[in-house]
Amino acid sequence: AQVVQAEFIKSSVRTEDCPSDGLPEFALVGRSNVGKSSLLNSLVRRKKLALTSKKPGKTQCINHFKVNDSWYLVDLPGYGYASAPQELRTDWNKFTKDYFLNRSTLVSVFLLIDASIPAKKIDLEYASWLGQNQVPMTLIFTKCDKRKKKRNGGKRPEENVNEFQELIRGFFETAPPWIMTSGVTNQGRDEMLLHMAQLRNY
Ligand code: GTP
Ligand code: MG
């Protein structure tokens, strides 16, 4: 299940504008700085695929990357910018919600969670919304290479991962699948590719 080819296709602001070829897709979403672009680049083994399409002022877009000519990785706008007012941080874009609820080719949303820090309220809210709306989701823990630091409460990534799953348990009928990753060591890359291949073949 390796990536042999990947290319940027288009940026869309509405679900209706997304590619209409019916290929299955997986959407990456998470707080700003969680490591979305790094993970995408790690998955496709390209240093700058996600960055090359990132234009200033285009952060509000749904970005489609076609892989092996047969499925899509979708980069969504990050949420929770530390400098934004609270209402803006929680009221994430209407079109992102619309995309989650109405994109028929969306196989699973990959919710990225930083495993190097304790659970954030905004991430729990996001997981809760996805669970309540029964959007298929996979938890992707990022930065699992980061070791314990005093300033993040002295927790190891494994402990943060367990705590996060404990905190979201009530939001889901069955616990979502989860994968530990690192864009630095490429931990979890093969597991993610295999997971996506399995989901596509259902
Ligand atoms: P925005 O596009 O601003 O929303 O951020 P993003 O989610 O795309 O995060 P990005 O990939 O740009 O990474 C943010 C920072 O975290 C950068 O300084 C990365 O080098 C660092 N980073 C990303 N992934 C990892 C990881 O797996 N391990 C470590 N140690 N650092 C990482
Ligand atoms: Mg990015």
From TrEMBL:
Cofactor(s) it depends on: Mg(2+)
> Would I find Metal-binding among this entry's keywords?
yes
Query: What is the source species?
Result: Populus alba x Populus x berolinensis
Look up the record and give one Gene Ontology term from the biological process aspect. Answer: cell division
> Example GO molecular function term?
GTP binding
Protein family according to the UniProt entry: Belongs to the TRAFAC class TrmE-Era-EngA-EngB-Septin-like GTPase superfamily. EngB GTPase family.
What range(s) does the EngB-type G domain occupy?
Answer: 22-202
From what superkingdom does this record's organism come? Eukaryota
Q: Does the keyword field hold Calcium?
A: no
Listed A to Z, the keywords are: Cell cycle, Cell division, GTP-binding, Magnesium, Metal-binding, Nucleotide-binding, Septation
Return the protein name.
GTP-binding protein
